[in-house]
Design a protein that fits this description.
By secondary structure, this protein is of the alpha/beta class. The protein has one domain. Helix content is 29%, strand content 18%. The strands form two sheets. Strands 1, 2, 5, 6, 7, 8 and 9 form a seven-stranded mixed beta sheet that branches. A hairpin with a 4-residue loop joins strand 6 and strand 7. Helix 1 packs across helix 2 and helix 4 runs parallel beside helix 5. The radius of gyration is 17 Å and the shape is globular. The two termini are 21 Å apart. The relative contact order is 0.22. The N terminus and C terminus are likely disordered.
Length: 220
């Protein structure tokens, strides 16, 4: 499913105009759909190059995307704490018994707005599997996921497709493989396999993979 086209902004800020101008200058086409609710996950795949980071920043600030990221609580200290929080940072105590997934679920419970951007590969090097944290968080918090990408093949960046995972692991993996089949990273051999390693818990009563309805997409 695709989100409804974003409404043209009344007036872009200077920062937005600069960032979008730079992306256009480098030949990138920007895809941006309104987020279908206050909470979700932004899955970014494939992640194969250091260039993904500056391109992602240009996209974030160019579109005004209110995305979050999680970091160790120890880095959220003066003098950078305020800056990190304004940039969407969420401090996490990874020493807690609940671990990263438990900490993320707690943040979703207590936050009014949270769209966490995650690269499920966890590395720019090739691996034979994805980290399953994004999947477990999406199911545990019962939230939609935006399928984002930086496609170097046709130089498109962003997202316009949202899904809810069914809890049927094999079905959900096949859906991800199908969607990302034509999305190419800067260094294609570095792209990791879309596969979970070991046993990943789904739902005991999985239903079909749902696409998020677009008739009630909120506008900021």
């Amino acid at each position: 499913m695709r989100g409804a086209p974003p409404a043209p902004p009344a007036k872009r800020t200077l920062v937005q105009r600069i960032c979008l101008g730079l992306l256009r200058l480098f030949g990138w086409r920007v895809l941006a759909a309104p987020l279908p609710g206050p909470k979700g996950i932004i899955i970014v795949y494939p992640h194969t190059s250091n260039w993904d980071f500056p391109l992602g920043l240009l996209y974030r600030f160019g579109t005004g995307l209110r995305a979050n990221w999680m970091g160790k609580d120890t880095i959220f200290r003066w003098p950078v704490r305020g800056l990190f929080l304004r940039m969407g940072g969420v401090p996490v105590n990874r020493r807690a018994a609940s671990g990263f997934i438990g900490a993320a679920l707690k943040q979703y419970e207590t936050s009014d707005w949270m769209w966490l951007a995650l690269a499920p590969e966890g590395t720019r090097k090739h691996t034979d599997h994805l980290k399953s944290g994004f999947y477990q968080i999406a199911l545990g918090a019962d939230i939609p996921c935006a399928l984002a990408f930086i496609n170097y093949a046709d130089k498109t960046i962003g997202f316009e497709t949202f899904v809810r995972f069914s809890g049927n692991v094999e079905q959900d993996i096949e859906m991800l493989r199908g969607f990302y089949a034509d999305k190419v990273g800067k260094f294609p051999p570095n792209a990791s396999e879309i596969l979970f390693r070991g046993k990943v818990a789904g739902r005991t009563d999985p239903g079909p993979t749902d696409q998020v309805p677009t008739d009630q997409v909120p506008r900021d």
